[in-house]
From TrEMBL:
<dbReference type="GO" id="GO:0005886">
    <property type="term" value="C:plasma membrane"/>
</dbReference>
<keyword id="KW-1003">Cell membrane</keyword>
<feature type="transmembrane region" description="Helical">
    <location>
        <begin position="317"/>
        <end position="340"/>
    </location>
</feature>
<feature type="transmembrane region" description="Helical">
    <location>
        <begin position="53"/>
        <end position="74"/>
    </location>
</feature>
<dbReference type="Pfam" id="PF05977">
    <property type="entry name" value="MFS_3"/>
</dbReference>
<dbReference type="GO" id="GO:0022857">
    <property type="term" value="F:transmembrane transporter activity"/>
</dbReference>
<dbReference type="InterPro" id="IPR020846">
    <property type="entry name" value="MFS_dom"/>
</dbReference>
<feature type="transmembrane region" description="Helical">
    <location>
        <begin position="21"/>
        <end position="47"/>
    </location>
</feature>
<keyword id="KW-0813">Transport</keyword>
<keyword id="KW-0812">Transmembrane</keyword>
<keyword id="KW-1133">Transmembrane helix</keyword>
<dbReference type="InterPro" id="IPR036259">
    <property type="entry name" value="MFS_trans_sf"/>
</dbReference>
<feature type="transmembrane region" description="Helical">
    <location>
        <begin position="382"/>
        <end position="400"/>
    </location>
</feature>
<feature type="transmembrane region" description="Helical">
    <location>
        <begin position="171"/>
        <end position="199"/>
    </location>
</feature>
<keyword id="KW-0472">Membrane</keyword>
<feature type="domain" description="Major facilitator superfamily (MFS) profile">
    <location>
        <begin position="15"/>
        <end position="403"/>
    </location>
</feature>
<protein>
    <submittedName>
        <fullName>Predicted arabinose efflux permease, MFS family</fullName>
    </submittedName>
</protein>
Length: 419
């Protein structure tokens, strides 16, 4: 029950009036910071040990590909079980994975093959973790009208960690080692584990039937619903092109700008700053059909920022381009997630979320692999310029369909509210 005092929460953070969501929010804040520290440290470790641009792409591909392959099936499987218990188990295994990586690195037992293997394991775990967390958020807030705000606040945490974590990782790498960064990430999972153990919610309804049957129900819904199909296509294109910048950042930091791990941290942090600002903006949005226009603007900004970053001759201009790129990508990804979860019926939300996460991270994986392989042949700047041009062409195609998409989204939202 929401008290009268709870109703006074500002509209931008209205989901925090729910105690369960506050517990999740606090634990997730610590966990996400640790994850970003590990991601930057792992990227730097790979490039320090091998100097290989292609291996950066292969490692990113290994970490994200399971989201594309395993993710949709994981969503169907988890819809048939107690999601809260499953999430607790997955968080525990993620902590162990990070601590093992720390030990291997500290004792200098790590090499390219082990790095790829550990990244692949992380990808499989994340294929279960991400849809579990996303689909449980609705249970943590309890009210459908507060779900879009809760999703925006959850994304804000991710992007705040992206803003703070990489520069912090750069400082830690300059003072200590990659092993300490991995160990800190392992310990950070304890915060979310404690929050999940304290949360009290009714067990969400479970889907009936075999995993294959449940999966096909979700696939049929996504394929036959035109607005959802077009939103997922947009998600795929943005992450295939714009999100691949992350693979090439170590190359820009060291070879293009002549910097070190701290330079890498600042570049990543600039993108995180832009992404964080985008989620602050989205948290205040209440008219969901208007998100269609915002998603399109985000894709356009991402294309422009890729072209600007590729041509940046100095670090300050590159930081500005990275901030714009982070804003554009995040507005697109988070806006699409808000629309998909609001459009999806309650009983199908877990599966729709799994298709979102598999597309989001799976096409990020494919884009990262292609970017790494292409940059090894034509160079990092030209690679990003080419991807920016491809995304720009897609935006022109999408512009011709924006009004139809917005009307269909409005009709589907009215139908959901009426139901």
């Amino acid at each position: 029950m929401t008290s009268s005092a709870d109703r006074q929460w500002p509209v931008a953070v209205r989901a925090l009036q729910h105690a369960n969501f506050r517990l999740y929010f606090a634990g997730q804040a610590v966990s996400i910071l640790g994850s970003w520290i590990q991601q930057v440290a792992l990227s730097w470790l790979i490039y320090r040990l091998t100097g290989s641009v292609a291996l950066l792409g292969v490692t990113t591909f290994a970490a994200l590909l399971p989201q594309l392959i395993v993710g949709p099936l994981a969503g169907a499987w988890t819809d048939r079980h107690d999601k809260r218990r499953l999430l607790i188990a997955v968080q525990g295994i993620l902590a162990v994975q990070a601590l093992v990586l720390a030990g291997l690195t500290a004792f200098e037992l790590i090499g390219p093959a082990l790095i790829v293997a550990m990244s692949l394991l992380l990808g499989v775990l994340n294929a279960f973790d991400t849809p579990l967390r996303q689909s449980l958020i609705g249970s943590f807030v309890g009210r459908r009208e507060d779900l879009p705000n809760a999703l925006a606040l959850n994304a804000m945490l991710f992007n705040a960690g992206r803003f703070v974590g990489p520069p912090l990782a750069g400082v830690l790498l300059a003072l200590t080692s990659e092993a300490l960064c991995f160990a800190l990430n392992g310990l950070s999972f304890l915060a979310l584990l404690i929050g999940l153990l304290l949360i009290r919610i009714d067990t969400p309804a479970r889907a009936s039937g075999s995993t294959g049957k449940v999966f096909r129900e979700g696939l049929d819904y996504v394929w036959q619903n035109q607005p959802i199909r077009l939103l997922i296509l947009t998600l795929a294109m943005v992450n295939l092109t714009a999100s691949s910048y992350a693979v090439l950042l170590p190359v820009f930091a060291r070879d293009i700008f002549g910097g070190d791990a701290q330079t890498l941290g600042w570049l990543w942090g600039a993108a995180g700053c832009g992404a964080f600002l985008s989620t602050l903006f989205l948290a205040t949005r209440q008219a969901l059909p208007g998100l269609v226009r915002i998603v399109l603007v985000g894709a356009l900004l991402s294309a422009a920022a890729l072209l600007a970053f590729a041509a940046s001759p100095v670090v300050p201009l590159a930081l500005a381009a990275m901030a714009l790129l982070g804003f554009g990508i995040s507005v697109g990804n988070v806006g699409i997630n808000m629309l998909l979860q609001s459009l999806a019926p309650e009983q199908l939300r877990g599966r729709v979320v799994s298709f979102f996460t598999s597309t989001r991270f799976g096409f990020d994986a494919i884009g990262g692999l292609l970017a790494g392989l292409l940059a090894a042949r034509i160079g990092a700047p030209l690679t990003l310029a080419l991807e920016g041009a491809v995304l720009l062409l897609f935006c022109f195609w999408l512009l011709a369909r924006r009004q139809t998409l917005r009307e269909q989204v409005r009709d589907d939202l009215h139908s959901q509210a009426g139901g």
